[in-house]
Prior knowledge:
Blueprint: H1 6-19, H2 23-29, H3 39-49, H4 91-94, E1 129-141, E2 146-157, E3 161-172, E4 175-190, E5 193-204, E6 209-220, E7 224-233, E8 238-246, E9 248-249, E10 254-265, E11 277-289, E12 295-306, H5 308-316, E13 322-336
Antiparallel strand pairs: 1-2, 1-13, 2-3, 3-4, 4-5, 5-6, 6-7, 7-8, 8-10, 9-10, 10-11, 11-12, 12-13
Helix pairs in contact: 1-2, 1-3
Amino acid sequence: xxxxxxxxxxxxxxxxxxxxxxxxxxxxxxxxxxxxxxxxxxxxxxxxxxxxxxxxxxxxxxxxxxxxxxxxxxxxxxxxxxxxxxxxxxxxxxxxxxxxxxxxxxxxxxxxxxxxxxxxxxxxxxxxxxxxxxxxxxxxxxxxxxxxxxxxxxxxxxxxxxxxxxxxxxxxxxxxxxxxxxxxxxxxxxxxxxxxxxxxxxxxxxxxxxxxxxxxxxxxxxxxxxxxxxxxxxxxxxxxxxxxxxxxxxxxxxxxxxxxxxxxxxxxxxxxxxxxxxxxxxxxxxxxxxxxxxxxxxxxxxxxxxxxxxxxxxxxxxxxxxxxxxxxxxxxxxxxx
Length: 337
């Protein structure tokens, strides 16, 4: 089949346009001089225009000739790029603004829009909070003795930076047997994880020791609460402590908490009955009932073992290297902002 002649297309469109209302004027326009440049385009445009009535003839309104087929030049202020920016702006002006900055360079509580005498709104990431958790406040019984144990941790700060403290110790027969005091500064490095750095002080029986501390703490996948801290002391002493807890909810209020804590030392410290290598492992579980989130009594059982040189030093002091502890205690916390 031979290609359809261009003239046939023009003739067909012209006849179709002429049959529409006002179509004679449209057909007449096909013979205009400007239609000779692209008769197909002009015929299509005029045929579409014929649906709404014939447009005025070119010679009736010569001042309209320039409007047909001519793009409207809108003011530059109405032009926007695909990203909503001004194409005439400099590259620096087109860069995304700081997410922590305020629109237009304005700052909260400063400038023309600050209302005197009115406290401006503060969002959660602009507010500092505080919390103190008594994770363990308990009485323990073994076959040979009973003692009180305390583990309190608290913090104050914002979403990224916080000051931490922790007190973990045991009291036996009215005196502190062994206690660890830590004062740390923590910074969030990714969701649910903080790095901490600070100092640790050991008190109780034997000479007191001071350590530098560096660690990582947070919530691991499957909601395991993890603390891993390394310590460096004087005379080349070093230590490592790892603690893992998990809250298993039996009901909304009844919660079983398995817990494991391990401690290792790099050097022997006979005065505090500590040997190099793995020194102790404490594992157990506590079953608590939360009358409220802030008040939860519990019962539990712990198994504690000393290993290696530490076990020898403990036996030499007349104490068992292995023992089972039966526990009753109270978990509590409060917070403020």
